[in-house]
Specification:
This protein is α+β, with helices and mostly antiparallel strands and 521 residues long. The chain has helices at residues 84-87, 227-231, 244-248, 262-268, 286-293, 297-302, 334-348, 375-383, 406-421, 438-447, 465-468, 487-494, 513-520; strands spanning 4-11, 14-20, 32-35, 40-41, 43-48, 53-58, 68-72, 77-82, 97-99, 106-112, 118-124, 136-139, 141-142, 147-153, 160-166, 190-191, 198-199, 222-225, 272-275, 279-281, 315-321, 352-357, 427-430, 453-456, 483-484. 20% of the residues lie in helices and 23% in strands.
Length: 521
Amino acid sequence: MEPRLRAEIHGPTEITFTLTGADKPARASAYRLTDGRGRALPIADVLTRSATESLLVPGTLLDALRVHYLEIPEMGLRALVRRDPIFRTLYSPKPLGAVVPGDGSETAFRIFSPRASAVRLYLYRGRDDPPADAERVVDMSRDEDGVWEVGVPGNLHGTWYDFTVHGPPDPGNFFYETHPTHVSDPYARVNDDAWGKSRVWQDGSPPPPVVGGRPAMEDVVAYEVHVQDFTDLLPVAESEVGTLPAMARSGLVNAHGQRVGLDYLADLGVNVVHLLPVQEFLHYPDSAWQAVFAHDPFAIAMGIDRENYQWGYRTTHAFAVENRYRSRGTEPGTERAQFKELVRAFHERGISLIVDLVPNHTGEEIDHRHLLLHFNVLDRPYYYRTDDEVEHIGPFGNEVKSEERPMVQRWLLDQMRHWVKDLGVDGFRVDLAGQVDKQTLRRVRFELPRDLIIYGEPWIAPSDPEVRANPDWAWYKADAPITFFQDDARNAFQGSPFNVNDRGWAGGDVHARAAAMAALA
């Protein structure tokens, strides 16, 4: 076994560390403690607790939320002093985002950034206003749980806003002092694309429940569909092509008089429609997209050289409806009412509507492109799984850290409650659910309504070896906390999508008969 050093800070006078795969040096002089800029800090003592674990007592009081490194120079080992013992206890039940109470007396703004030293709120009349033209700039106050908050008098419905987040220049920090950028609200109900400002928004009533109730999980017959793909060729006005209102429109027929669109789905007999992500997701700026693909033969052949085409698996604002799905010519925020009308249209036909949830990674570092939208600035090592250099890990660019992060687990639950209670959906398909820790998914099943339709993908384990090796967090099929896509059944019926020679029972593989019977059972 290769020697491995892991360290954690518990407070200003206590660091614990473990060394596995080698004997620990007994003398304190064998260890070196530094801050995030590499400056050596005094060590008062190192006390052995077990064969692998020790307590390091610093010779000066430490700021436990700053970056520190522990080294054993003679062994060539160096480890980030992780802040997990503190992070795992931070929690606040306060409503986050921009919240207008029933009497409209004030608008409360709250955002979670536990290691920031200051947060400022900027209020604007228009979404294109530069920071210098902000109507008002307000210093926010931090509570003991890391929530920054301020109440602004009056009902600010329709007001645009963003933040600057300030703090020290440690590794993994992207505060304003070193990266002068404004960030949006991860709890925003309306956002101007992934890159722009957030907007204060109050909703009307949710749509009525589905006629006949939601089907039991074993009775679900789901049709998976992408809003843009489904509506791009429908016979609707140009302002509705590719939008939610086009998908909700009844009475459409094609050139042969056949029913298309919503009526076609109803005629199929499905009882669940599953939408690919409709939360606000990353669209690269139109000008950048078109410049890249203007002369790309494949993009031209697919018709996406001019169209900013995305499936939605780069979500950036989990509480906002994708604003590009609203009918053109309507103001930002009306996509929420248009989405609820779509839910109503399906519910009236006895069809439940579920949405694709992407809580395992965000659009912020997707495709390994470094973006500063919100979580990267608010607190990268709190919100994301990171390595000893406080860099993102994961094959898609980042992985959200749901384990040992109560406010991240709450973020996932809050968005699900919001889409059910306020927007009327009937459940979720959880993208790459195997990267979400088991306890969080168990809590989802325990706290959300029992009749919600919830299923996900078990594939792709977490990239963090500590998470992957922990049976309380990592899961696959035998110990699944939620219903999951069953690729064994799919392969038995129709063969593998990854191997053209695997045809399954339907394709003539007589050896797949037993597996197909088991799948049917």
